[in-house]
Every structure is written in structure tokens, then in C-alpha cells.
Specification:
The chain is of the alpha+beta class and 107 residues long. 24% of the residues lie in helices and 15% in strands. The radius of gyration is 28 Å and the shape is elongated.
Length: 107
């Protein structure tokens, strides 16, 4: 049995904090994050980049959608060299990555 059985607390709001202080602190945090990150997010969005904030909101991630078009070269398996002869792969130009039309590339 717990030793604090004799302590009784009345029902209702806890006495520790005034009501609503954490709501105001959370609103202030969101406002400060907006001041910090909104210009950067607008800049990236205007240029066609994807942006999202971290779960806490203190970091902004920016990603270019064109990376979705790139994939590993099938001829050299991403090595950049022909697997048998060792010469530079003609399909990817020795890079190991190609941007394929099947992924939406416009010629």
C-alpha cells in the first residue's frame, strides 16, 4: 500500500500551474517557428521544391522532386563500369545513375 494515502487532493484543476499557461507556451512556440521557417519554406516552394518540418517543428527539410526521376543504371548495376570489360559504361557515362524517361523525364 502506498504511504501517501493520507494526502487528499481536491478535484478540479491542479494547483501547480495557472490554467492555460501551457497552451500559451505552445502557441508562442508555433509563432516563433513560423517567423523562423516561413520565409525559407516559401522560397523553396516558389522554386518547386518539397518542404516539410520535423515533428518538433525546429527543422525544415527541403527536397527536389527531380531526384525521384533518377535510378541505378541497369547495364552496370550502378558501378559506372562495364561488368566484363571494365570500360566506362556507355548507358550512364560512367556515373552509375541514369534519369529514365519511364520515370517521367521530358526530352
Amino acid at each position: 500500500m502506498a504511504r501517501n494515502d493520507h494526502q487528499v487532493r481536491r478535484a478540479g484543476q491542479p494547483d501547480d500551474d495557472p490554467p492555460g499557461i501551457w497552451r500559451r507556451v505552445a502557441r508562442l512556440r508555433v509563432t516563433v517557428q513560423g517567423w523562423l521557417w516561413n520565409p525559407d519554406e516559401k522560397w523553396a516552394t516558389d522554386r518547386g521544391l518539397d518542404t516539410w518540418r520535423s515533428s518538433a517543428g525546429w527543422a525544415v527539410h527541403v527536397r527536389d522532386r527531380r531526384f525521384d526521376l533518377r535510378h541505378v543504371c541497369e547495364a552496370c548495376a550502378g558501378e559506372g563500369r562495364h561488368p566484363i570489360g571494365g570500360a566506362e559504361c556507355a548507358d550512364c557515362g560512367g556515373v552509375g545513375v541514369v534519369t529514365g524517361p519511364e520515370r517521367g523525364e521530358r526530352a
